[in-house]
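Form 12-C: Joint structure prediction
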Amino acid sequence: MSLVSIRDVRKSFGPNEVLKGVSLDIAKGDAVAIIGRSGSGKSTLLRCINGLETYQSGSIVADGIEVAGANTNLRELRRHVGMVFQQFNLFPHLTAAENVMLAPTVVNKVSKAEARATAAEVLAKVGLSEKMDAYPSELSGGQQQRVAIARSLAMRPKVLLCDEITSALDPELVNEVLRVVEQLAREGMTLILVTHEMRFARDVGTKLVFMHHGKVHEEGAPKEVFAAPRTPELQQFVGQVG
Amino acid sequence: MLQFSFWDILSNLLIATQWTIVLSLIAFFCGGIVGLVLLFMRTSRIAPLEWFTKIYIEFFQGTPLLMQLFLFFFGIALFGVEVSPWMAATLALTFWTSAFLTEIWRGCVEAIPKGQWEASSSLALSYIEQMRYVILPQASRIAVAPTVGFSVQVIKGTALASIIGFVELTKAGTMLNNATFRPFLVYSLVALIYFCLCFPLSWWAKKIEGRLNVAR
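Section 2 - Result
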């Protein structure tokens, strides 16, 4: 059974239809890389999965919770579906550890001591043990993004959504973030990544999805899809970026 | 006829100044509490709550404070409830202050980047939790300077309470003028006292603003 099931999802911003019937199944342990041109609807699709965007028709079920409009139990959904953003979005008035501890203490009512232990564990996992008490402004972009990943991990999500998480980073900082994601994939974390890192999508992804004009244009095992793109659009796209 | 020395005038004005200060403090703190509640309603994205606060703010910002004082003073009396000038002044100034503070603070909340809302939403925080732990701690930093700046308006606003008979600084000035027939002296002193109350606040507000600009 799939952990995230997306069925014929359609979404418009005003007259502009950005998702034109997207269907996708994501199994536990999958690392799905979604690629495509800007404006192809990949980020919108990702944001529909945790309810940051609503959609007009179709259905999305994530970890057994139907994501559908105003009646969705968003709190329950988001406890199990984490998200990491392009712009990190760390809370600037809190230290790295406090950023990580906030949701466990406030949402899950975990004690401060227990949350701090979890923070230490997840920050160690992203290689930032020594930065627990640093404020975001004292960290590099790559470090901030790793704190953001740790912040999501502290909620023990079943699925982690990553929205172009290396796009705002200086080139030399990209790899430290990708290494963390790669490690998560190896440990069996279910990941859905919107990415422009083609090499990463090919080497780390278990599944590749190419979106084009609001639809899943091509999908399959990354190495096969990259080696032999079936559609001219993907051939062209791979030729341009790869 | 009773003679008033300069010191008599000044000491009487200073006694009345206490009431200006008390009225300002009450209006500011009660207005702040009401304003905070309204702020939550105004930014809640719940349509009826937003509409209510919009109309409330438009009313109190779009009509003269003096009219509001009259409405509270004479309006409540229509329902057979006796209203003292003190009560009417407190209520009117509280609501008037809350409307302005809500708008000032809403601006500060909206200055917080959208990503902060999205990130805290994605961590399953509710709206109230987002405001309390993520948005307000950041918004309050930028709100301090304009809030202190506005407190000057509250102090000057209390002068209007003299018209419904509440004896504060301005009213005391009027009464002393009637007794002494020395309007220029009396009102100069009144103005000077207002200035001494307000100037430190506006100076402080400027200072905080400058410090924030350096930090960014």
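Section 3 - Comments
The first helix of chain A runs from residue 42 to 49. The mean pLDDT of chain A is 94.
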